[in-house]
Design a protein that fits this description.
This protein has about 1000 residues and is of the alpha+beta class. It has 29 helices and 39 strands. Bound molecules: pyridoxal-5'-phosphate.
């Protein structure tokens, strides 16, 4: 073993020059260089070359000197491009020349080439140059892979594996606190690091890339030009190479961990590190410094003074103090991130699991935060009054400001986003421990602002890990840490801050909470650390961090690392991303643009129009991240953005879209699948793009088949937007802008059982209404005409979700057919299994129409429509004129249509519609028993109506109340409509995937709204 205290050789400059000349044939000038154990001279040869002449410490065993020689030979042979010293042989061909000093001691002399460059110690240590240093070391260690020499197996104080020996040198440290400081690092080393060292990769390493041994390119300060002094090389753990380089290069820097991370990045790029190696790095850096300061103290005792030893001592102490204040886990996270690993093992898996499963989590608030009207709390604005009052610890004023903002803007939930830059954190505890002079300003939790007392529930099962009070002003107040160990996900923790103190006695460590269980209540300012009431919710992927060690606010420069350690809880509580970022034009901007550029009679729903930016299943999400439960848009039959439909559409669109003039499988497959859902002779399909087109095509077929124009329609019906269909739509021609009934159109009374005259016997209602059709036919007959068509929706919808009385269509169809007409069912709104019991709503009447028209739900939002009829009618229509419709029946539309049919069948959606529809009807009936204003509830499957009347006897329509309920439901986040000649029927047509939970949500909102609206009457 080398005796570290053995004095260095002491040749004079003249002697050194003599050795150079006599043994190596070098003439020139000499100057001496600093060295710890050896003696080094720079020789500027007369031929312009520069050399280092090294007199090796006489205590250095011969096998070690041989080792260095072999090492330099190895590098020369295997990596000639590496900028490291090259050996010069003596005149006799030796690389180690024995020379006797004046004192009689024999020393070996070695001459190596001079490396050009500025010592890193004298250069600016930028991230770039440090990264270059890491790269250089990585290259070096790669070049040394596979090299072995007995001299490398040294026992040596500077071997990081021996760093624990520093404990024996603690006695040389005079100051008690300093000793305690070192003791803490040594304790960690003994407990966590040393036991793991034997399992680390080992190799021959340089082991002394201190900033005097590292040379920077004088022309390019971002590049390392050379590495010198292999005197400490040995066989040790590979990671020590990085640790040693870091320990010296980061001294005195404002952000030492960041600087070390640059070295790590560079090394990893050249020589990939393993995660377990990086895990030890922080402690190894510290222990290199501990070794240095303890050896220095020991040496001071023994040799009195050696300037080389003391060179890095003061900065090393300063750095040790800074490292002592840093959480090793956070520093390790920075190093891991520098290698591209998860900042903490499993971090990405946790974030991914939460993202994929969050739709199944229980709501954190009584109302799901996605469904509430939200606004950002203005903590991002340092000048805002609420921010100023919060920072100056005036929570009452801050709370008043926020409360009145919420009242004015109808905001239910305030959001303090993750990652927000904030000026409210004023205390000394917010000074960065990583970066000198910097403050922690980025919010690493997510705040939910609601009134004090608001109850908070855990979205997934949890075990209570800690419940405590943090009493500091602007601290957390009552604080809870929960541990979550979901299946298929690494464990993680959640932190719940600023709670009411009631949790302290209610919850205890080890308590198990199920998803949806109460965690706590938002505390008032007296209990929550002195803030406007809110929850600070934070995730931590490191479950070992104690509640108070979870960093609530972090440095901006480390945000990407904090993002992994403390992921944004937005997904955890199901906050739509639109809550935080708006895109496109404002609502007002779009309204103005529509006014100036679009047809003025395009109507917009609601006095306060909504801008939706995304749809997801039963939810429509507005531009501020509020999710509305969609109970109205029956077009998105399977729910918005159904993945199967989106995939079918994009796959086919990416492949081919043409028209029916070319052969394609999709159209015939689709026609076969679609007609298979229809009974009887309804076997010929053709396609269109809209419900109106389908009805127009049906009219052409009717005319071709019957040779007639005359049509009977039901009052208040709507069949489409072309003029010929407006003429068949009393809902249009009888209202504003309409031109009244055309002579070929005959209007039958709406067969509305609820509004049937009270003196009609129940079992005769169908017959009595059907008589009105007979009357129409009679009117025609008297005028020498006969009906070509009877057209009706199978459940008149615009007329107010009217369910035809049993037997009605059977009687009507018989009359119309007897008079030579055909019967068409408009299933544009009600088809595709919406009624649950049947594919097609006319089936409820036990009839088979001659033509069925389909639209809206057929493509789940993709514009397509269909007409299905009999062979006989199809043949009549085939009168020589071709039917071509550019877009209709194209391969993309047919792929979409097929996907819709597949999903309805695969997911049993008709059964779902029936089950949920029945449940809703039952709940509506229960409401009817409590609210007199509900005159009638009706529905089948997910086609439902609630008729409101001011008086159940007179059945006077409660139009205003219906409107108020519709608006109130919208305010509460549920979309529905009003319908009927008096607009007094609440119309509900939710997607076929509507769940029991969705139904309960709808009922809750309806109950709330009814209560609120009726109390205002
Ligand atoms: C019953 C009925 N038929 C036909 C249509 C027309 O369909 P589209 O708007 O797709 O042309 C509608 C549209 O609301 C409708 O409700």
């Amino acid at each position: 073993m080398i005796n570290l205290s053995h004095p260095a050789p002491s040749f004079s400059d003249a002697e050194a020059l003599g050795i150079a000349r006599d043994h190596f044939g070098i003439e020139g000038r000499v100057s001496s260089l600093a060295s710890e154990r050896d003696q080094n001279f720079r020789i500027d040869a007369s031929d312009g070359s520069i050399w280092i002449l090294k007199a090796v410490n006489s205590s250095e065993p011969k096998d070690q000197s041989d080792f260095q020689t072999a090492l330099l030979h190895h590098l020369e042979a295997n990596s000639p491009g590496l900028p490291v010293p090259r050996l010069r042989r003596s005149l006799q061909g030796q690389v180690l020349v024995p020379v006797q000093s004046q004192s009689g001691e024999q020393h070996f002399i070695r001459v190596v080439s001079w490396q050009e460059g500025e010592p890193l110690a004298e250069c600016k240590r930028t991230p770039e140059v440090l990264q270059s240093l890491g790269q250089m070391l990585g290259r070096l260690d790669r070049a040394m892979q596979g090299f072995m020499h007995p001299g490398a197996l040294r026992t040596f104080d500077w071997d990081i594996r021996a760093a624990g020996l520093s404990r024996q040198r603690l006695k040389y440290i005079d100051d008690v606190e300093d000793r305690a400081l070192l003791g803490r690092f040594i304790k960690r080393f003994d407990a966590h690091v040393e036991p793991r060292l034997p399992t680390m990769r080992a190799a021959i390493i340089h082991n002394d890339a201190n900033d005097w041994n590292v040379l920077v390119d004088t022309k390019n300060p971002a590049r390392i030009a050379g590495l010198i002094d292999f005197g400490d090389a040995l066989h040790s753990v590979l990671i020590a190479e990085v640790a040693v380089a870091c320990a010296y290069s980061i001294l005195d820097l404002e952000d030492p961990i960041g600087a070390a991370a640059s070295i790590v990045t560079g090394f990893h790029a050249e020589y990939p590190l393993q995660e377990q190696e990086v895990e030890l790095l922080f402690d190894l850096i510290a222990m290199r410094l501990v070794t240095s300061v303890t050896l220095s103290a020991q040496r001071k005792e023994k040799t009195d003074d050696n300037p080389y030893l003391a060179i890095s001592e003061a900065p090393a102490w300063a750095l040790l103090r800074r490292l002592d204040a840093i959480n090793p886990g956070f520093a390790t996270a920075i190093f891991r991130h520098a290698c591209g690993f998860d900042a903490s093992s499993g971090a990405k898996a946790i974030a991914g699991w939460i993202r994929h499963n969050s739709s199944t989590f229980a709501p954190v608030l009584a109302g799901h935060p996605a469904t509430l009207a939200k606004a950002l709390v203005p903590y991002g604005d340092p000048k805002n009054a609420m921010t100023v009052w919060s920072a100056s610890q005036e929570p009452e004023k801050a709370t008043d400001w926020w409360d009145s903002y919420c009242r004015e803007n109808e905001v239910a939930l305030g959001i303090g986003p993750w990652g927000e830059e904030r000026s409210v954190y004023t205390g000394p505890m917010f000074e960065s421990r990583f970066v000198a002079g910097e403050r922690r300003t980025r919010h690493l939790g997510l705040d939910l602002f609601m009134p004090a007392g608001t109850k908070l529930f855990t979205p997934i099962a949890a075990t209570v890990a800690e419940v405590l009070i943090e009493p500091d002003p602007l601290g957390y107040g009552c604080l809870i840490k929960l541990l979550h160990e979901p299946e298929g996900c690494p464990p993680f923790a959640t932190l719940w801050g600023h709670l009411a103190h009631e949790a302290l006695t209610r919850l205890h460590q080890g308590d198990v909470l199920a998803a949806g269980d109460l965690v706590g209540e938002m505390g008032a300012h007296a209990e929550n650390g002195g803030w406007a009431p809110h929850l600070h919710l934070q995730l931590s992927v490191d479950t070992a961090l104690s509640a108070l060690d979870i960093l609530g606010v972090g440095e901006a420069r480390y945000l990407p690392i904090w993002a992994e350690l403390f992921p944004d809880p937005a997904d955890f509580i199901g906050l739509p991303r639109e809550t935080f970022h708006q895109t496109g034009q404002s609502r007002q901007g779009i309204i103005a643009a529509r006014k100036s550029m679009l047809l003025p009679n395009l109507s917009i729903s609601y006095a306060e129009p909504i801008k939706f930016v995304r749809g997801e299943g039963v939810w429509l999400i507005d531009d501020h991240g509020r999710a509305y439960l969609d109970c109205f848009n029956n077009v998105c039959h399977l729910g918005h953005a159904h993945p199967d439909v989106v995939s079918a559409l994009s796959t086919q669109a990416g492949l081919l879209n043409t028209n029916t003039r070319y052969l394609h499988d999709n159209i015939v497959t689709y026609a076969e699948r679609l007609t298979a859902t229809l009974p009887g002779d309804l076997k010929v399909a053709t396609f269109a793009c809209t419900g109106s087109e389908a009805n127009s095509l049906m009219l052409r077929m009717m005319r071709a088949h019957t040779g007639r124009e005359e049509a009977i329609v039901l009052d208040w019906a709507y069949h489409g937007t072309t003029q010929e269909l407006i003429d068949l739509s009393p809902y249009k021609y009888k209202r504003k802008g309409g031109k009244g009934r055309m002579p070929h159109v005959y209007e039958a009374i709406i067969p509305d059982s609820y509004r049937a005259p009270p003196d009609w016997p129940r079992e005769e209602i169908a017959k009595r209404y059907a008589e009105n059709i007979a009357e129409q036919i009679e009117v025609m007959r008297k005028a020498g005409k006969a009906p070509g068509l009877f057209l009706a929706e199978s459940i008149p919808s615009v007329a107010g979700q009217v369910f035809l009385p049993d037997g009605y269509l059977k009687q009507v169809y018989a009359m119309v057919r007897a008079a030579g007409g055909i019967c068409a069912a408009d299933e544009v709104q009600v088809g595709f299994g919406r009624v649950g019991s049947h594919w097609w709503a006319y089936e409820m009447q036990d009839v088979v129409p001659d033509i069925v028209t389909m639209g809206k739900p057929i493509g789940n939002g993709h514009p397509m429509a269909a007409v299905v009829t009999t062979r006989e009618i199809a043949d009549s229509f085939n009168n020589g004129m071709e039917y071509f419709n550019t877009f209709a029946g194209n391969p993309v539309s047919c792929a979409v249509g097929l996907a819709v049919l597949d999903v309805i069948e695969r997911d049993n959606l008709r059964q779902n519609a029936l089950d949920i529809g029945n449940y809703l009807l039952q709940r509506f009936e229960a409401m009817k028993a409590r609210y007199d204003v509900i005159g009638d509830v009706r529905g089948r499957g997910l086609f439902l109506g609630i008729e409101l009347v001011t008086d159940r006897k007179t059945k006077h329509p409660a139009t205003e109340i219906a409107r108020a309920i519709n608006n109130g439901a919208r305010q509460r986040g549920v979309l529905m409509g009003t319908e009927g000649p008096h607009d007094n029927i609440l119309k509900l047509r939710p997607p076929m995937i509507f769940s029991r939970a969705n139904a309960d949500h709808l009922i809750d909102v309806l109950e709330d709204t009814f209560t609120a609206v009726l109390s205002n009457q």
